Amino acid sequence: MTYAAPLRDLRFVLEELVGMDAVAALPGADHVNAELVAAVLEEAGRFAADVLAPLNAPGDKAGARWDDGAVTTAPGFADAYRRFVEGGWNALSCNPEHGGQGLPKSVAAGVEEMWNAANMSFALCPLLTRGAIEALELTGSDAQKALYLPKLIEGSWTGTMNLTEPQAGSDLAAVRTRATPDGEGRYRIQGQKIYITYGEHDMAENIVHLVLARLPDAPAGVKGISLFVVPKFIPDADGRPGARNDIRCVSIEHKLGIKASPTAVLAYGDAGGALGELVGEANRGLEYMFIMMNNARFQVGLQGLAIAERAFQQARAYARDRVQGTEAGVRGGGRVPIIRHADVRRMLMEMKARIEAMRALGIVTAHALDLAQAGQDAGAQARADLLIPIVKGWFTEQAGDIASLGVQIHGGMGFIEETGAAQHLRDARILPIYEGTTGIQANDLIGRKVARDGGRAAHALAAEMRATAERLPESGELAGLRAGLLSAVSLLNACTDWMVATYGTDIGAASAGAVPYLKLFGTVAGGWQTARAAMAAAARLEGGDNADRDFHQAKIGTAQFYAAHVLAQAGAYAHQVMHGAPATFALTDDQIAA
């Protein structure tokens, strides 16, 4: 089926939950208003639906092709990328100093959801480029910024990040790639990197790799890793792509999903060393790379939202068209579309409620990133840092569940590739894995973001959630939201206190509860946002806004479903957090294998 961008919901979140005044108050955003945002979203939605979405299923079938070191992307991808760049979409949220348009991240997040929902394999290329841009902006030399940023922001050059090696996986302390000074201010890079998204392709005139490697005198472990910029083609004196660097694409991976996105194995320095430049200071590469990682983790969270939305749209359309059986409780009724069956409605509402909660939380997190970058809110960076592992981990875990529900709604036809539902499930499966697994996100959350500051940032956010709950009425159609959110926030606070206390005395027990804690936090934060949405919608209805009456009434109904079916799971997560560790370690390794 075709993809339709959820424009009305995106505008609602920006206007009601973030506030256009708050967006316009950001430095350099005084020109941003509801009319501009609506125009940007509408045009992006049109590009996503008309250009990118039609390439999604064919790209899945054709995949990317490797031949003697060269990679050809799926038919239509190169032309779509050319149109993407010509339309200025790559520069949307980038710094105007280097050719970007400077749109706030809170607005760009909605656009990026569209790219990924329409065609996630395509959208991965600009996603990685944006991470390279941010890393060079913050850590590159003036010369590196002048050379690389205009091309990367324009999109005529693309970027990658090169962390993983065959023996290392997520353990970056085991990185072996070497960087040897060449005596002329540059370095010869030698080693192999794996899982490099768009590490080789035919869509841009140059590819700029940011590579982790070790200097000859580097200390062992993560403290001895430096970051280097290593282009596929070495720019000449005029900044144009020149001689081919000593980088070879050994192969591309054969994957479960995102098959049109080439995932490359890159060999550096087989002919003496790929020429690169040190970025920033020596032995601070991991710190710099985490700039890219942080950006990428937020973007991957948006991918989870996006693929969930695409699966929902397809399942909803199928449920409305597929006629089968009679409606329970209706005597003498004829055969009905399956959307009239109670369990199908439950699954569709589960998809819808979770998606709207994610969308709201994702854009609110993007606004926190905007505020942190602007330096306008002392607590914005702490809030963004707290929420990013939740956005990455909770969104992507939900994406798999929601895509699986989409297959279930299709019944047996969902298991058949021709319907397209299976592709969404296959594509979604990578999301909880790359850019740090859910376990890694959860350990980051409990360690760096909660235990390190004694739970202050987590409790501060929970206090805002409680304040929202207390503004909900004690009677009427929103009363159930109040009771459910107050209870869930209390559980979250109790688990935060438990996590802070336990992390310092029994890190194993804390780690056993880390993923349930992340899911609890995401579930409660989602309930917070759906409650805020319900209050805003109720206010619109009370004010006589009848133009969008069905939309606003649906917001209230969706929040009620979320509270009854999703937020109600908070108690189970809390029990896992505080009481699940003994069962986790109850068996020995041999007993697990028995």
TrEMBL record:
<dbReference type="Pfam" id="PF12806">
    <property type="entry name" value="Acyl-CoA_dh_C"/>
</dbReference>
<feature type="domain" description="Acyl-CoA dehydrogenase/oxidase N-terminal">
    <location>
        <begin position="39"/>
        <end position="155"/>
    </location>
</feature>
<dbReference type="InterPro" id="IPR036250">
    <property type="entry name" value="AcylCo_DH-like_C"/>
</dbReference>
<feature type="domain" description="Acetyl-CoA dehydrogenase-like C-terminal">
    <location>
        <begin position="461"/>
        <end position="587"/>
    </location>
</feature>
<dbReference type="InterPro" id="IPR046373">
    <property type="entry name" value="Acyl-CoA_Oxase/DH_mid-dom_sf"/>
</dbReference>
<protein>
    <recommendedName>
        <fullName>3-methylmercaptopropionyl-CoA dehydrogenase</fullName>
        <ecNumber>1.3.99.41</ecNumber>
    </recommendedName>
</protein>
<keyword id="KW-0560">Oxidoreductase</keyword>
<comment type="similarity">
    <text>Belongs to the acyl-CoA dehydrogenase family.</text>
</comment>
<comment type="function">
    <text>Involved in the assimilation of dimethylsulphoniopropionate (DMSP), an important compound in the fixation of carbon in marine phytoplankton, by mediating the conversion of 3-(methylthio)propanoyl-CoA (MMPA-CoA) to 3-(methylthio)acryloyl-CoA (MTA-CoA).</text>
</comment>
<dbReference type="Pfam" id="PF02770">
    <property type="entry name" value="Acyl-CoA_dh_M"/>
</dbReference>
<dbReference type="InterPro" id="IPR013786">
    <property type="entry name" value="AcylCoA_DH/ox_N"/>
</dbReference>
<dbReference type="InterPro" id="IPR037069">
    <property type="entry name" value="AcylCoA_DH/ox_N_sf"/>
</dbReference>
<keyword id="KW-0285">Flavoprotein</keyword>
<dbReference type="Pfam" id="PF02771">
    <property type="entry name" value="Acyl-CoA_dh_N"/>
</dbReference>
<dbReference type="Pfam" id="PF00441">
    <property type="entry name" value="Acyl-CoA_dh_1"/>
</dbReference>
<dbReference type="InterPro" id="IPR025878">
    <property type="entry name" value="Acyl-CoA_dh-like_C_dom"/>
</dbReference>
<dbReference type="InterPro" id="IPR006091">
    <property type="entry name" value="Acyl-CoA_Oxase/DH_mid-dom"/>
</dbReference>
<dbReference type="InterPro" id="IPR009100">
    <property type="entry name" value="AcylCoA_DH/oxidase_NM_dom_sf"/>
</dbReference>
<dbReference type="GO" id="GO:0050660">
    <property type="term" value="F:flavin adenine dinucleotide binding"/>
</dbReference>
<dbReference type="InterPro" id="IPR052166">
    <property type="entry name" value="Diverse_Acyl-CoA_DH"/>
</dbReference>
<keyword id="KW-0274">FAD</keyword>
<feature type="domain" description="Acyl-CoA oxidase/dehydrogenase middle">
    <location>
        <begin position="161"/>
        <end position="266"/>
    </location>
</feature>
<dbReference type="InterPro" id="IPR009075">
    <property type="entry name" value="AcylCo_DH/oxidase_C"/>
</dbReference>
<dbReference type="GO" id="GO:0016627">
    <property type="term" value="F:oxidoreductase activity, acting on the CH-CH group of donors"/>
</dbReference>
<feature type="domain" description="Acyl-CoA dehydrogenase/oxidase C-terminal">
    <location>
        <begin position="283"/>
        <end position="445"/>
    </location>
</feature>
